[in-house]
């Protein structure tokens, strides 16, 4: 009676135990369509199934009935099958209590299947518990396991015992090597995977929560140097993208090398290192882990030949198939037929649940593929937008620096021109001062010549009065002298007028250079004509003087001196005219240089205006691209919110890393690293600007990159170099064919 009361208390405690299990797994009440991590889902299934097996080991063999064994095993099956529902953990706890209550009363199995309703998940391990060898600790009849972690450890250890025993018996019976298609071998790897996942700490990332036993297996490489060969082989296997797939490949290679038990013993012995990966109370940190590693020594007699190239180890679903370990619970009591009927009913029920789970799994995989494609596209677009933004910022900075340089050089040139103009103005002022002095000198010479003329007239009158007999000759001479004096006066007046005209032209400055040049040319011609006329008159006067010298020697000597003075004046005028011509030529050369400088400045001004317009266009393009970037960032944020709702997808960090590596394969060359065009090798300058190819990232000149094509990262046509243009055209043409 005391035993009965204890068992009833155990049955009554099934509710709290189930509640505790449900509390440990907060995701169990979520909607089946919500995004849950695949690793957490599998862990919830296995823990629900393992918890249902607790009653098999928590009772002595004498007090266990076939019904209780069936109930306990069925609870594990129903929990693993209902991974997409919200009652996986609660049903496991409820069945656990029901199994302990049934250990006393032992009602018929048909009592648990109401009429008109589908059969409830009943236990399916009737004879499996009796076949478990007596390795490791066995609880007594009075112990009641309230801790779900303890129940899970015991159930996993028992399942490992059954799996290892069946493998060894099958290998001895068949007498051949086992391949990857052998079902008991596949179940052994599934059970071992659950053992390694038990109590594993959850790693959080932006994709959600994930559990991977690849981290603990990597410790073996540090503990056992000979295991490095297996780790290298796993990393070199093609097609493995997730840590789960690499961990499964590692276990298969270790089994083929017959070193799995040694590596597991070395790993279990270092609990200080395993505590970084496992929660307290997990299987690997407790005694059960050492027991399982010891049982694996018997696997060294197996010869396994596993081919992993064709297997998809990343997406395999690790669900324990309990039907492989069932035995007929034949007994002498009258309930054998009823038990067989219940087992068949439960088998049909589990098959229906399995088909539903397969449909749900297919839907989830389809959603995962869609999300992977969307995420990959958005990552590529984001990388393209970031590259375009960085390129535009670099070009804007370059244009700003070039604009500042051009403005500074323009200011320097304008200052130089201003200094040259000031110097020229000072030169003009000095020239005007010299002309004023020349004018004063001419007026002084005119006064002296007028005085000299008066003296000559007085002297001639005196000579006429003294030489009456020569009156006729004197009259003729006087007439000639008057004519020469008139010519000289006219010449002097013309010279004075030309000097005044020249002075006015000098005062006008740069504005009348061309007009003054013409007037100076006309004046020079007139002066030359006058000089030629004076020369002719001088020659005539010399002839007259020679005739007059014969009669009047002294008069002729005076006239000769006057003629010499006239020659000196003529020579002085010729020298002045030569200086004036040279000065005029110098002014013409200076004017030509000024015109050339003005034309150069106008060309530079037009260049600056073109650069300014190009800068304005670049700024407008930059603003437009910034707007597009803001819109795409907003779209990415919305898609990120949607992706966070599907945190149960099978996207892994390694996939994103591989996409990033592919996107980073093209290097964006910096402006300061390129001095010549990569294609024509011409040096860059202000007129030959740098342009980036949007496909390869190299820098070319305008003539070598004057092509536009749409790229996957940009729907609009962008600039590409000649090489990429030809390559893309060939690729598009081959794709169109």
TrEMBL record:
Compositionally skewed regions (Low complexity) per UniProt: 58-91
FYVE-type domain location: 671-729
Acidic residues bias spans: 1-11
Swiss-Prot/TrEMBL keywords: Coiled coil, Metal-binding, Zinc, Zinc-finger
Organism domain of life: Eukaryota
Basic and acidic residues bias: start-end ranges: 21-36
Entry-linked CDD domains: FYVE_RUFY1 (cd15758)
Residue ranges with Pro residues bias: 106-119
Record-annotated RUN domain positions: 179-311
InterPro entries for the chain: FYVE_RUFY1, RUFY1-3, Run_dom, Run_dom_sf, Znf_FYVE, Znf_FYVE-rel, Znf_FYVE_PHD, Znf_RING/FYVE/PHD
Coiled coil: 368-402, 435-642
Pfam families membership: FYVE, RUN
Name this polypeptide is given: RUN and FYVE domain-containing protein 2 isoform X3
Lineage: Eukaryota, Metazoa, Chordata, Craniata, Vertebrata
Gene label: RUFY2
């Amino acid at each position: 009676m005391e035993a009965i009361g204890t068992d009833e208390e155990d049955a009554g405690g099934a509710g709290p135990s189930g509640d505790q299990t449900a509390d440990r797994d907060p995701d169990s009440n979520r909607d089946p369509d919500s995004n849950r991590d695949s690793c957490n889902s599998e862990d919830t299934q296995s823990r629900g199934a393992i918890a249902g097996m607790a009653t098999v080991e928590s009772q002595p063999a004498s007090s266990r009935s076939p019904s209780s064994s069936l109930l306990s095993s069925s609870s594990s099956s129903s929990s693993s099958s209902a991974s997409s529902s919200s009652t996986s953990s609660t049903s496991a706890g409820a069945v656990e209590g029901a199994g302990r209550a049934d250990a006393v009363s032992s009602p018929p199995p048909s009592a648990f299947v109401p009429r008109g309703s589908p059969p409830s998940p009943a236990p399916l391990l009737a004879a499996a518990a009796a076949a478990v060898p007596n390795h490791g600790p066995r609880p007594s009849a009075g112990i009641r396991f309230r801790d779900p972690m303890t129940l899970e450890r015991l159930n996993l250890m028992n399942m490992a015992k059954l799996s290892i025993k069946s493998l060894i018996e099958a290998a001895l019976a068949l007498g051949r090597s086992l391949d990857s298609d052998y079902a008991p071998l596949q179940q052994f790897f599934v059970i071992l995977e659950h053992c390694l996942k038990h109590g594993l700490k959850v790693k959080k990332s932006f994709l959600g929560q994930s559990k991977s036993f690849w981290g603990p297996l990597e410790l073996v490489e540090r503990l056992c140097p000979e295991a490095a060969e297996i780790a290298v082989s796993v990393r070199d296997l093609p097609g493995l993208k997730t840590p789960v797939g690499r961990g499964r490949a590692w276990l298969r290679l270790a089994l083929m090398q017959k070193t799995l038990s040694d590596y597991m013993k070395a790993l279990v012995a270092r609990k200080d290192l395993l505590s970084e990966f496992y929660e307290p109370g997990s299987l690997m940190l407790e005694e059960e882990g050492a027991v399982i590693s010891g049982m694996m020594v018997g696997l060294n007699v197996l010869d396994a030949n596993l081919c992993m190239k064709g297997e998809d180890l990343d997406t395999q679903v690790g669900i324990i198939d309990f039907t492989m370990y069932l035995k007929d619970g034949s007994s002498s009591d009258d309930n054998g037929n009823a038990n067989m009927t219940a087992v068949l009913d439960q088998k049909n029920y589990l098959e229906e649940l399995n088909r539903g789970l397969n449909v749900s799994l297919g839907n989830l995989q389809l959603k995962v593929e869609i999300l992977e494609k969307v995420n990959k596209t958005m990552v590529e677009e984001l990388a393209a937008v970031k590259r375009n933004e960085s390129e535009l910022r670099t070009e804007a900075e370059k244009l700003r620096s070039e604009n500042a340089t051009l403005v500074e050089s323009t200011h320097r040139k304008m200052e130089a021109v201003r200094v040259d103009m000031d110097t020229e103005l000072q030169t003009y002022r000095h020239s005007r001062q010299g002309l004023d002095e020349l004018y004063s000198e001419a007026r002084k010479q005119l006064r002296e010549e007028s005085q000299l003329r008066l003296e000559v007239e007085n002297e001639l009158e005196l000579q006429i009065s003294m030489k009456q007999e020569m009156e006729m000759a004197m009259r003729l001479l006087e007439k000639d002298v008057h004519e020469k004096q008139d010519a000289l006066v006219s010449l002097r007046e013309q010279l004075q007028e030309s000097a005044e005209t020249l002075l006015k032209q000098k005062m006008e400055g740069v504005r009348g250079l061309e007009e003054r040049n013409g007037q100076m040319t006309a004046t020079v011609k007139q002066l030359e004509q006058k000089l030629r006329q004076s020369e002719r008159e001088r020659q005539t006067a010399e002839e007259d003087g020679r005739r007059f010298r014969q009669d009047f020697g002294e008069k002729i000597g005076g006239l000769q001196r006057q003629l010499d003075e006239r020659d000196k004046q003529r020579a002085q005028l010729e020298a002045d005219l030569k200086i004036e011509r040279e000065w005029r030529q110098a002014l013409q050369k200076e004017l030509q240089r000024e015109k050339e400088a003005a034309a150069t400045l106008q060309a530079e001004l037009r260049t600056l205006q073109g650069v300014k317009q190009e800068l304005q266009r670049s700024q407008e393009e930059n603003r437009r691209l910034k707007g597009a970037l803001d819109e795409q960032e907003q779209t990415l944020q919305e898609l990120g919110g949607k992706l966070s709702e599907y945190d149960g997808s099978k996207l892994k960090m390694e996939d994103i890393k591989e996409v990033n590596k592919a996107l980073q394969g093209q290097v964006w060359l910096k402006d300061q690293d390129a001095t010549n065009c990569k294609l024509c090798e011409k040096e860059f300058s202000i007129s030959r600007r740098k342009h980036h190819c949007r496909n390869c990232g190299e820098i070319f000149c305008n003539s070598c990159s004057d092509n536009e094509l749409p790229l996957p990262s940009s729907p609009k046509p962008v600039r590409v170099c000649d090489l990429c243009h030809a390559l893309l055209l060939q690729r598009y043409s081959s794709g169109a064919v």
